[in-house]
Write a structure and sequence with these properties.
heterodimer, A: about 250 residues, about 30% helix, about 20% strand, globular, B: about 400 residues, FAD/NAD(P)-binding domain
Chain lengths: ~250, ~400
Amino acid sequence: MNQHGRFGPTRPITLKILRYKPGFIDPPRYDTFQVQADPLMTVLDALEEIKATADSTLLYRHSCHHASCGTCGMKVNGREQLACVARLVDEGTDEVVVEPLGSAPLVADLVVDMTPFALHMAPSGMALVRDSEFMPEAERPAGVERYTRYEDCIECNICLSACPVANTNPGFIGPAGLAAAYRALVTGERPAAEVFAYVDHDDGVWRCHSAMECSAVCPSDVQPGHKIMALRRELVAYKVKRFFKRG
Amino acid sequence: MRTTYHVVVIGGGSTGAALVHDLVLRGFKVTLVERGELTSGTAGRHHGLLHSGGRYAVNDQESAIECIEENIILRKIAPGSFEENDGLFVAITDEDVAYLDKFLAGCETCHIPTRVLTAAQVKRLEPHINPQVKLAVQVPDATMDCWRLPMRFFATAKHNGADIRPYNEVIGMLITAGTVTGVRVRSHVTGQEYDLKADIVVNATGAWAEKVSEMAHARVPVKPTPGVMVAVRGRWCNMVINRLNKPSDGDIIVPQRGLSVIGTTSWTVEDPDRLGLPEDHVRRMFEKGGELIPAVKHAPMRAAWAAARPLIAEGGAQEGRELPRTFKCFDHKVRDGIEGLVTISGGKGTTMRAMAEATANVVCDKLGLDIPCRTKEVVLLPYWAYYQ
């Protein structure tokens, strides 16, 4: 069973992949590999094929293959994408450059260390599961009190890599963390005072320069940039209300 | 209780995740090695269905019972990890309706709670359902996150002392006088090779089990049996929608976040690293999924992929759908006369904890230990605790 010749015509594409293994492939270099890409072949499919046939030492993160786990964020032709849904032919180039995200410490090849990102996200208080907004007219079956769904944000770290502010301010909570805080605020998962304590400081909601790169690259329709703006409005309103209560 | 025994687990999928958690709770020193990222094999590519067991209630009741038992346990030990909207087995044709009695009887035998709903009720619950629907049966299915649920096991195990090493691939077995005494590992991060000594080595590599056990000249009857899944944009149902009939292609739609995931198909391959993605299977997902919810036929495709089930083909004649979905733990001392090596395979994401319990029991038996399993009670840490 092979993938070639299906889903329409194939064409050869060269992948130019950043390689780095501390003390082994050090300094980093680019290796090139060729694949025959059909219209559906994703960057992840290509990496899997290269690993299985050409170089079993190639490292990259991946799990669900359908844009739900958030592990396979990387730069494809300089733009942050999930490798599992980035189709090679859509890039429109004969050579596709694949590099690790810029917002996290590099471990090896395309693998970055998610620890700093997780530490920024965890205190946001966002729950994984929230109420489903789909089909509000639908009745619920006996035993199901509310229809729930997983949160959109898949914690892929893509928005941080694309954020010009995060790239120069490692302490910045970043778009994902701020969007998560907004989510925790509006769903009431966390008391407002706690959410604002988390975001109301120099490395929080005020650090954002509204470049909106985060909303442009987000693969999961979270629109972090818009949520940061909304979070600021909520914060200002909260402060005004508190000021007048005191007065 | 503490033991000084060291267990090496090969494979960082859902089974490996639950197994390291179980073993450290029982007091073992545990090291897990995984050649890639955690859950980068079958676990991650899983459909995302926390089975009620309904799918197997007629033809594979051992699996059905495992599913409903574990379904209840996982909700208890991993609260907040599932979209808990239940599932429906819907009858579209008269032939589906004729399956109802068998289905209900099977569910009753397996203690799977059911509630029969009329066509009108089903349409009120799921407005996008095929309007031809004749009736449906409600069961406790749910949606699971194939990365974040195993990560809760890994996180808890790590905090309890397990040494978890992704990007470390086993390239050979250390064998002395017919006994496996450890593994030879290559770190793909540093390029270095090293030996890892072990009292017991557990092969938890699922569809890769045969490739790994061959390093010890042991045999495992695992048939990598891939299935294709297609995720479309739009959430076209809140409940898991199954076809009320015997298991077939494209007969389950699992809603998840803003997507609907249609699955699956079944064929066998020799090499779990080269599954391919048969175009006709992808097309069939739209066609068969469309029989349940017509709108998915025209919904934009988000992703299409294949995952290799690690099915056990003992006896030879059976293939694909006929193979049981239950799991088996092999002590290679009994099977091949090789001491120190245990293989766990078969099973499903839903039964990961039970697979781990059975395997840890075999490890204890082999070492003459009597330490009870605690994983039915211990509530797991949040998934992000893995990074803390």
